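Project outcomes to date are best conveyed with an example. Our students and postdoctoral researchers have been running inverse folding experiments weekly, and each run begins with a structure described purely in tokens. The record below, which covers 146 residues, was selected by the lab manager from last quarter's runs and is presented without edits.
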């Protein structure tokens, strides 16, 4: 982010984007699902997942949504304090083991909230592979400049 004249970080520009690449391998999928308490065989059992309509191990929705929300936290906390207020996700396509995905967020709108002492930032997000969108997302974050 750019720095404003008063020393604070400049507000994000509408349309500005930030992204990160994530790779989902079987071991990571199993580990995350186990930690999250998700015992669905689609995330653990290669044989059972292979017989499913997905044809193999797939990542848990909690896995990639956590990574997407973590990306938001990482992006904003370099320049101030941030807390997530709302996130919603729509799952369009499963994330298969072996997939390399791009998580991207776009600044949609921002409004000052004096009561909360910061700016409410509205975001739109996607998780995609080779330009095929697997997840769409919306987020609302309170950002307080340093």
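After processing, the design step wrote out the following sequence:
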């Amino acid at each position: 982010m750019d720095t404003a004249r008063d020393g604070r970080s400049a507000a994000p520009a509408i349309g500005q984007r930030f992204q990160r690449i994530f790779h989902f391998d079987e071991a990571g999928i199993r580990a995350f699902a186990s930690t999250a308490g998700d015992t669905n065989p689609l995330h653990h059992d290669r044989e059972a997942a292979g017989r499913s309509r997905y044809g193999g191990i797939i990542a848990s929705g909690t896995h990639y949504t956590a990574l997407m929300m973590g990306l938001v936290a990482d992006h904003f906390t370099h320049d101030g304090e941030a807390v997530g207020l709302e996130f919603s996700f729509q799952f369009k396509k499963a994330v298969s083991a072996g997939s390399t995905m791009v998580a991207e967020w776009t600044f949609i709108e921002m409004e000052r909230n004096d009561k909360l002492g910061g700016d409410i930032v509205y975001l739109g997000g996607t998780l995609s592979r080779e330009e095929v969108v697997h997840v769409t997302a919306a987020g609302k974050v309170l950002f307080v400049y340093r």
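The chain is about 25% helix and 40% strand. The mean pLDDT is 92. The training component of this project remains on track.
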